[in-house]
Design brief:
This protein is an alpha/beta fold and 246 residues long. The protein has 8 helices and 6 strands. Strand 4, helix 6 and strand 5 form a beta-alpha-beta unit.
């Protein structure tokens, strides 16, 4: 019988994994893993997100999507109003800042990957392997490595989902750096599911990618995420909360 861990992991991406024509303005693919203690998710994260939705929309059926928020589209069209946008963004920043979770992110530099390798690996699969290795390490450090931890992804399409699950199982069955079994369980969520955890992961992925591309540029969203990135015992982020490749 499975012994479930005290944590759950939500995953989202930024950018695409297409290597044929990388976007020169965003030539990276980022996979962000948000590791959340279930008790804090239930007691703090979910109520905070629901409260913000009721305050700004009057209901909780809206789904926070970073792209739609940034472009002021769909349910977020009201953000074209400067005053309302400032209030909303301040509340969103506060939500992320005060939510308790740990981030492990993998950034694949697609332009460099394509230039360095004659037959480069799928960026999504690379990011998944690097990410799962670090998620397991983070959980093991909290004495949760031997328990079953569920990792939640948003569905993208039947073919992509099947390939993702196959790759996930391959990595967890031992095709990883330490050649060991990772006690992680694959969960696929429909795009129709209003998951607070997936929305949180969606909000943090792009700021990380932008910081990798332009580290000297002002990036307030990344400033909120940076304290949540996993670190080594000496406080090092690179290779722990952030893995860049190549």
């Amino acid at each position: 019988m499975d012994v479930f861990s005290d944590y759950i992991v939500y995953v989202d991406e930024s950018g695409d994994h297409n290597l044929d024509a990388p976007d020169p303005t965003y030539p990276v693919f980022v996979l962000a893993f948000c590791i959340i203690r279930k008790a804090e998710y239930i007691e703090q994260v979910v109520p905070a997100i629901q409260e913000m939705k009721f305050r700004h929309f009057g209901h909780d059926m809206v789904v926070f999507h970073e792209h739609e928020i940034r472009k002021a589209r769909g349910d977020f069209a009201f953000l074209t109003d400067k005053g309302r946008r400032e209030t909303f963004m301040a509340d969103l920043s506060s939500l992320v800042e005060h939510s308790s979770f740990t981030v492990i992110s993998v950034c694949i530099r697609k332009d460099q990957l394509k230039a360095r390798y004659a037959k480069p690996t799928n960026p999504y699969h690379l990011a998944l392997e690097f990410g799962l290795e670090r998620v397991h390490r983070c959980l093991a450090a909290r004495d949760e490595g031997e328990k079953t931890t569920h990792v939640v992804f948003e569905a993208r399409g039947q073919k992509e989902d099947d390939e993702l699950e196959l790759e996930f199982r391959r990595v967890c069955d031992g095709a990883n750096y330490h050649k060991r079994r990772l006690n992680l369980r694959f969960v696929l969520a429909s795009k129709k599911v209003n998951s607070c955890g997936l929305q949180l992961a969606d909000l943090v992925a792009r700021p990380i990618g932008l910081n990798v591309i332009r580290p000297g540029q002002v990036n307030r969203a990344y400033d909120l995420v940076e304290p949540k990135l996993d670190r080594s015992a000496r406080g090092v982020i690179e290779g722990w909360g952030l893995k860049c490749f190549p």
